[in-house]
Amino acid sequence: MVGRRRWKSLHFPKRSDDGFDITVEVFSNEIIVSADGPHFHFDQVESPEDTVNDALGLTRDLLSPDMRILQKCTNGKPYKWSLQVLRNGTWHTEQTMGLLVFNIIGKRSERVFTNRLLPGRLNTSDA
Predict the structure, then answer these.
(1) pLDDT by 10s per residue, the chain, length 127
(2) Which secondary structure element, helix H or strand E, spans residue 108, and what is its range?
């Protein structure tokens, strides 16, 4: 892409089979946080500090048990990922991403992936 150059990247490998890798990539005009299937774009809208705070805040929460990824599969192949947040003991879907083309008649299954590298900080009554 014209005008887009990756400056740095930071990788957090999963520590268990039920965890997921996280990669933070810093470009000249955005930060992308990838969590295996789903990825999140943080464009510099207001200030570089706010962009970095938002991207690293999400990264920190993805490393804790307060966030998880619900992966839906067809015939064992992933096609949809939902980012879920734990609030007051209940999981809430914040964002869902999926493939446009997938096998709609295949056998469906689900897997949940959670990291436990940092303690949670989101599971409060005001979240």
Answers:
(1) 455 676 889 999 999 999 999 999 998 889 999 998 889 999 877 788 889 999 999 999 999 999 999 999 999 899 999 999 999 889 999 999 988 877 778 899 999 999 999 998 866 544 4
(2) strand 108-114
What residues contact residue 45 under an 8 Å CB cut-off, 6+ apart?
A: 51
DSSP reduced 3-state for 26: strand
Which amino acid, one-letter code, is at 51? Answer: T
Q: Which two tokens stand for residue 16?
A: 């268990």
CA 20 to chain centre: 9
How big is the chain by its Cα radius of gyration, in Å? 16
Per the structure block, which two tokens stand in for 24? Answer: 């933070």
Which CA distances in Å does 35 have to 55, 101, 124, 126?
12, 20, 24, 26
pTM to 2 decimals? 0.84
